[in-house]
Amino acid sequence: MSIYHDAVEILRDSCEKYKNHEISLNEIKQIIWKSAQIITAIEERTFRNHLIAAEAELDTIQFTCDEDKVFNATLPIILSIEELSENK
Fold first, then answer.
1. For labelling alongside 36, which of 13, 43, 64, 77 has CA 20 to 30 A away?
2. Residue 51: domain span
3. Which pLDDT score is estimated for 87?
4. What CA–CA distance (Å, rounded) separates 21 from 1?
5. Which stretches of the chain are DSSP H helices?
6. Residue 35's closest CA among 16, 20, 13?
7. How many domains does the chain contain in total?
8. Residue among 76, 43, 84, 42 at smallest CA distance from 57
9. Is 34 helix (H, G, I), strand (E, B) or coil?
10. pLDDT the model gives residue 2
11. Statement: residue 1 has pLDDT above 50
C-alpha cells in the first residue's frame, strides 16, 4: 500500500466525480495539483510527474478549446490519471 493512500483515494474519487459532472474542471485541476505536491517520495516520481503534466495539459485545454468541447477533450487525461493511480 502506498504511503500516500489518502491522497490517491481523494484523487480517484475526484476523477470519478469529474467524469460524472459533479465537480468542475478547476476543482479537479486543483486536486491533481495538491496530490502532486503531497506525493514526494522518489519511488513515486513518475506518478508525480504525470500528475504535474496532466494538470498543465488540462490547463491548456481549458484555455484553448471551445467551451463545449472541453469536457470531452479532458476525459482521456482523467482516465490516464485513474489508470496510473490503480496500483498506488
1. 64
2. 5-85
3. 78
4. 29
5. 5-19, 25-38, 45-64, 67-85
6. 13
7. 1
8. 76
9. helix
10. 61
11. no
Spatial distance between the Cα atoms of 61 and 77, rounded to a whole number of angstroms: 10
Total Cβ atoms within 10 A of residue 31: 22
pLDDT tens digits for 28-72?
999 999 999 999 887 889 999 999 999 999 999 999 999 999 999
Q: Is 39 left (phi over 0), alpha (psi -120 to 50) or beta?
A: beta
Identify the residue whose cell numbers are 495539483. Answer: 33
**Residue 35: which residues within 8 A CB-CB, separation 6 or more?**
4, 7, 8, 10, 11, 51
| CB 8, CB 2: distance < 8 Å | yes
Q: What are phi and psi of 4, to 5 degrees?
A: -105, 30
